[in-house]
Amino acid sequence: MKCRTPRPGLLAILLSLALSPAYAGDSPADAHARGAIIYERCAACHALQTDRTGPRHCGLIGRRAGSVPGFAYSPAMRQSRLIWSEANLDHFIKAPMAFMPGTAMGYDGVKNDAERHDLLAFLRQEGTSDKCRNLQVERP
Amino acid sequence: MTMLKMLGDSAKAIPRRAFISQSGLLLSGAAVALLTGQDALAAKSADGVESDLRILNTALGAELEAIAAYQVGAESGLLQKPVLDLALTFQGHHKEHADLLGSTIMKLGGKPVTARSKYSFPLETLKTQVDVLRFAAGLEKGAVSAYLGAIPVFGNRDLAKAAGSILGDEAMHWAILRNAVGDVPVPGAFVS
After folding, report:
1. How far apart are CA B131 and CA B181, in angstroms?
2. CATH code at A61?
3. Reported pTM
4. What are the 10-residue block averages of pLDDT along chain B, 192 residues in total?
5. Which residue of B has its CA nearest to A97?
6. Which of A42, A53, A97 is closest, CB to CB, to B61?
7. Interchain contact B65–A (C-beta under 8 A)
């Protein structure tokens, strides 16, 4: 009997389906809960309320890139003149170094669309929480 | 606390001093072999070197923060032996990672970042030994993800290989810390 090796493209699709969260009956709370788990990947460098190796994420959406006072950004980030929105964050998180060459975020990115959706849902909701509102940094 | 007892038993199996010296020799030997050759350090382009240096310095910053976090845990008075010894062993690994990253950055012509004078940790949430271990586990999990995300973007594949070596160590820390607090040590077949 002849064995056929799956094509790499097909294998990638099957793997991504296997690893994707389900969307049936989804709610904002579901997306936030899944996003919280995905956010754990960021924990080596980021926190919501405090600056770490990376800057704090409270107040991220709507903030000018490279603008948290006292944080040592890369020149690329500091000079980007970008205002973070969910749309451009989606691109950045997918491929940080391609979206912003020179960023200090040496990370391949979250390639899965559903995972980025959930991560952004988490950041959106956390950004409106009391703990974040009390930490809002200056806006442009 | 059953899991903590199990951890205690396993930690006693190897004297800490011997464990540190043996593992240090192995890691250092492998890491140096990966990084000291001229080929290993020869980047394909100036842009590639600059990019690799940024990745290495970000990793170094995270390692320095991990060292500080374990120091906070060690000085908290919340960790009991042998968990305290284990935390110090893991901190020693992070110091080795930081030393290697720093020396590699210098070999590549870069300037290593230094430890901050002050780090912000959620001290108000650390009330028990389990709190400290869960906090450390979260950092280790993040470190696994960070190295996993760095490996594909290194221009120099020898650096990627070295990052994989560090990732493996962080993953072991994460699993042991999860085990210590009673979680399933290895929660899945993949890390992300």
Report:
1. 9
2. 1.10.760.10
3. 0.81
4. 43 40 43 48 70 98 98 97 97 98 98 96 96 98 98 97 98 98 97 96
5. B153
6. A53
7. yes
